[in-house]
């Protein structure tokens, strides 16, 4: 009796394995659920396969990874096959745990302290990918995205780049030169994974730039963060006045002047206030004119009616 029950569960399981190979995931899931009801021994991996099926389209979903982790930790089996890919259970546990931490780190955003914390977490994760996953492929990418190029080493390299980019973002507010160094390191890792690293180089250049504010004369480093260009017209006489200065207050083409963040923000806020006042004045004048016209129309109509 027991034997026939097991046989039944095994048959369902075998059917499910074939259905997964054919890409019939929903049908496979149904067979697996039935087989779990009937059997569910200590080395049963039906629960693992159900959770794997549920991972489709949810590779960024922490709860999907947690369900899979529970199933992986409950089975006594050492490996399983999903479709054409054979996966070691301990390796999958490592990859799922790393994926959860990676998603949590990616979701960190906010002030400089948060970005620094995010950067440090990504760097630690990078080391773990390189040492614990190494040259193994990332199984979720292989199974669900058909991508066998992503190994632990490569993922580590990408995370090193992202970690240093996050450190740069967290540092640039206080120390743009240090932020430029972090971007330079990130650039090296981007190149190693075949990216152009263009945006890193641009930021290295911007963060390293220093100017003397045209308005207040203060020195500011970090283009786009601590100082900004404002388009202007610099006459030949004014150009001469800046000659010989170690730091420039204007762009090379003399099309714009540089303003430190404080001057730039102050000027912008004041200009906004003035624009708002003009806008409000124009609106109230328009409303008054509308009321006058309305009154004239009413008067005209009554005149027209009296003529009839
Ligand atoms: Zn200034």
Give a verbal description of the structure.
With 308 residues, this protein is mostly helical. It has three domains: 1-87, Serine Threonine Protein Phosphatase 5, Tetratricopeptide repeat; 108-208, no CATH class; 210-308. The chain has helices at residues 2-21, 25-38, 46-54, 62-74, 89-106, 112-133, 139-145, 152-171, 176-192, 198-208, 236-241, 261-307, and strands at 79-82, 85-88, 210-212, 219-221, 227-231, 256-260. A two-stranded antiparallel sheet has the order 1-2. It has a two-stranded antiparallel ribbon with strand order 3-4. β1 and β2 (85-88) form a beta hairpin. α5 (89-106) packs antiparallel against α6 (112-133), α6 (112-133) packs antiparallel against α8 (152-171) and α9 packs antiparallel against α10. The longest helix has 47 residues, at 261-307. The radius of gyration is 33 Å and the shape is flat. The chain starts with a helix and ends with a helix. It binds zinc ion. Residues 213, 215-216, 218, 259-260, 262-263 line the site of zinc ion. Zinc ion binds next to β6 and α12.
Topology overview:
Layout: H1 2-21, H2 25-38, H3 46-54, H4 62-74, E1 79-82, E2 85-88, H5 89-106, H6 112-133, H7 139-145, H8 152-171, H9 176-192, H10 198-208, E3 210-212, E4 219-221, E5 227-231, H11 236-241, E6 256-260, H12 261-307
Antiparallel strand pairs: 1-2, 3-4, 5-6
Helix pairs in contact: 1-2, 2-3, 3-4, 4-5, 5-6, 6-8, 8-9, 9-10
Zinc ion (ZN) binds at residues 213, 215-216, 218, 259-260, 262-263.
């Amino acid at each position: 009796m027991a034997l026939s029950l097991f046989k039944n569960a095994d048959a369902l399981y075998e059917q499910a394995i074939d259905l997964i190979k054919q890409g019939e995931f929903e049908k496979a899931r149904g067979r697996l659920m039935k087989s779990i009801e009937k059997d569910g021994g200590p080395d049963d991996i039906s629960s693992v396969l159900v959770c794997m099926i549920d991972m489709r389209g949810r590779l960024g979903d922490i709860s999907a990874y947690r369900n899979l982790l529970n199933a992986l930790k409950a089975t006594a089996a050492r490996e399983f096959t999903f479709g054409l890919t054979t996966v070691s259970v301990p390796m999958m546990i490592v990859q799922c745990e790393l994926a959860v931490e990676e998603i949590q780190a990616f979701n960190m955003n906010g002030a400089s302290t948060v970005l620094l914390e995010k950067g440090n977490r990504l760097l630690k994760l990078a080391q773990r990918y390189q040492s614990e996953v190494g040259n193994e492929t990332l199984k979720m990418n292989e199974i669900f995205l058909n991508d066998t190029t992503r190994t632990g080493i490569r993922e580590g390299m990408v995370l090193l780049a992202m970690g240093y980019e996050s450190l740069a973002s967290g540092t640039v507010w206080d120390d743009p030169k240090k932020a430029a160094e972090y971007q330079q390191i990130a650039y090296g890792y981007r190149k190693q994974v075949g990216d152009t690293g263009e945006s890193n180089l641009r930021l290295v250049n911007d963060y390293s730039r220093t100017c003397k504010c045209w308005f207040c004369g203060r020195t500011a480093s970090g283009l786009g963060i601590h100082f900004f260009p404002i388009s202007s017209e610099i006459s030949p006489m004014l150009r001469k006045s800046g000659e010989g200065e170690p730091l420039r207050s204007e762009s090379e083409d003399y099309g714009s002047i540089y303003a430190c963040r404080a001057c730039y923000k102050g000027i912008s806020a004041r200009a906004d206030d003035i624009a708002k006042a003009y806008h409000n004045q124009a609106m109230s004048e328009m409303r008054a004119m509308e009321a006058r016209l309305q009154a004239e129309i009413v008067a005209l109509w009554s005149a027209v009616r009296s003529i009839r």
